């Protein structure tokens, strides 16, 4: 594939641009403790990554609770008060993220964000690491009816950029990122900077698996092959 045929790159945020798993787990734990509910295991939460916090909390909340719906609302409300404000110091940018985004932008790729974060959460995190200037479009869970693995968020970003699926690469760190991209018909590259393992990601057959986004510029022209770096 010629390098110029890829026009746009759509990035997940948590685990792809910014390390978010530690503050996410902490915020969920705090929200559950505030509501006197036993916290789910890290493994249960990690299995849900790529979805919105609302969907994650609903999925991990014990189903046997008699007042499930009420407690779900309370936990979600508590989480939104905590995340990201009360755990902001726990976030860390992926090493080399700014340099890589600048390199891609300078190479005339159109860059967008697709995330399960709410807009208010995204704004704070991108501002913290000064990442806003690199992106043309920002699509959050607030903008769609269904979050990943539904392709809706990918389709909306492509529409905003006026590009076709085979002109797009999605980059993410979870199974749900891969599934959404494949359903939308785009290329997809998985990174190993999130909480899900290489073995888990490989099962979904992304076009490539790389250790982090700093490798991305060197693999964009080779997407007709599936490989690992």
How would you characterize this protein structure?
With 229 residues, this protein is α/β, with parallel strands linked by helices. The protein folds into two domains: 156 residues, 3-Layer(aba) Sandwich (Rossmann fold); 69 residues. Helices cover 40% and strands 14% of the residues. The strands form two sheets. Strands 5-4-1-6-7-8-9 form a seven-stranded parallel β-sheet, sandwiched between helices. A two-stranded antiparallel ribbon has the order 2-3. The chain is globular. The two termini are 18 Å apart.
Percent of residues in helices comes to: 25-40%
Name of the CATH class of the largest domain:
Alpha Beta
Tally of alpha and pi helices? 10
CATH homologous superfamily of the largest domain? HAD superfamily/HAD-like
How are the strands of the biggest sheet laid out side by side?
Answer: 5-4-1-6-7-8-9
Overall tally of structural domains: 2
Helix and strand string, N-terminal first? EEHHHHEHEHEHEHEHEHE
Major sheet details: 7 strands, parallel
Average pLDDT: 93
What is the count of β-strands? 9
Low-confidence stretches: 224-229
Taken as a percent bin, the fraction of beta residues is: 5-15%
CATH topology of the largest domain: Rossmann fold
Proper CATH architecture of the largest domain: 3-Layer(aba) Sandwich
As a whole number of angstroms, the C-alpha radius of gyration is 17 Å
Global shape: globular
